[in-house]
Write a structure and sequence with these properties.
four-stranded parallel sheet; about 40% helix; 5 helices
Length: about 160
């Protein structure tokens, strides 16, 4: 199983988790980590380390953050680069990204891993930074999130309202 950690500024993690639970039920192999106003970056790092440890022993961990370049994203990247687990980090998470990751992660369990090789050992990138099936899940989740972004554009000529991507 691939574990999921959601983190972000303020109560982003607990807020988006409430939406996930409404749509998908109670969560498993899942951690929500808020970066509250009173938290320092060091406190956030400790919270994220505890979340990673809680998911220890899984095939990999997907960390979903609110803003690419923000403190939760940057701390998550440092964990990816310093830990031995297969970790992927996504910035700009929305509810469709989270739903796709949470509901489809079982499809990536053991997928494409050579016999006898743990997914965390399987390097799928030239730079050695993307490992295991968690990379495929991250890519699929990003695509799902992008596919749900629309702009409502009222039609002025034929009376039909449309959405544009």
């Amino acid at each position: 199983m691939i574990g999921i950690i959601v983190t972000g500024h303020g109560s982003f993690a607990t807020g988006i988790t409430s939406g996930l639970k409404l749509l998908a039920g109670e969560t498993a192999y899942y951690e929500a980590v808020d970066f509250l106003p009173e938290d320092s970056v060091e406190a956030l790092t400790e919270k994220l380390l505890r979340a990673v440890e809680a998911l220890n022993g899984l095939e990999g961990i997907l960390i979903l953050t609110d803003i690419a370049g923000g403190s939760p994203f940057n701390v998550s990247l440092k964990l990816k680069l310093t830990r031995t687990e297969a970790i992927e980090v996504i910035g700009g998470t929305n509810l469709p990204v989270l739903l796709e990751a949470y509901l489809s992660r079982a499809m990536y369990e053991g997928a494409g891993t050579p016999s006898g090789q743990h997914a965390a050992e399987k390097d799928e990138s030239p730079d050695g930074l993307r490992k295991g099936n968690v990379a495929g899940l991250a890519d699929a989740a990003c695509e799902a999130g992008k596919g749900q972004l629309v702009v409502y554009v009222p039609s002025v000529d034929d009376g039909e309202d449309e959405f544009e991507e």
